[in-house]
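Holo prediction — magnesium ion.
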Amino acid sequence: MPNKALTSSTLAIPEVGVVPSHIAIVMDGNGRWARQRLLPRVAGHRKGVEAVRRTVEACMAMGVQSLTLFAFSSENWRRPSDEVSVLMKLFLKALKTDVRKMAKEGIRLRIVGDTSAFNEELRHAIAESENLTLSNTRFNLNIAANYGGRWDILNATRLMLKANPLLANQPETIREEHLAPYLALADQPEPDLYIRTGGEQRVSNFLLWQLAYTEFYFTERFWPEFGKEMLLEAVRSYNQRERRFGRTSEQLHQASRASAS
Ligand code: IPE
Ligand code: IPE
Ligand code: MG
């Protein structure tokens, strides 16, 4: 059996289980949740942290291996500076409050994105949290912060060329396998399921490369309301999909008949 974590959905057909191996979530709608309650937008972000805890717990209980949460995009710097600053403080606080528990529970925490843009204190807390959970293998929690799918692909290209400078002279020899190891989350399976709360049906520069064959699920509900029940609903929807990876439905039925006999 190929190493599941390294299966590329475009180079081989990944194994598909009832429980998604990897779930990626765009945690959207915090601001609108707060506004509906006549609260400042940041009250929604604060509530959103509780939804993160519920979701991590529910994913672990379900047997999911990896969860990637979009916390701050490379375009979110365009927001009012007060809101950006509260988001940074909340991120720092959540790291400090939760990391010891994560370490104990077997969670490996990784922050993916261009963390060089964060202030010294936050960068330090990120490095410390990642170190503290480094040897954990039960569950991967990836927080995408100052992350953009385009940044990820460009960053991987730069790293690939730095490691293999000769490739620049032979661009026709460059294959997916050369670039893939330098992308964020390269050691984890591609997301099986993408969830976006808040009603918008877009990607907003999340995992552009990694979502090649991911199933999408959108809900109108806002992120602060998210939890186990909504996660189960998304997984139920996921289980009704036929993941063909480019093949025909008939081919899939033939393959399942062959394996049953
Ligand atoms: C998602 O909620 C959190 C971040 C992008 C940091 P929003 O803040 O985008 O909430 P809405 O979409 O404005 O309601
Ligand atoms: C996407 O939400 C990013 C995060 C949830 C962190 P946005 O609220 O920034 O997305 P747009 O601007 O509506 O596309
Ligand atoms: Mg939003």
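READOUT: The pocket of IPE (ligand 2) is lined by residues 26-28, 70-73, 76, 200, 202, 204 (CB under 6 Å).
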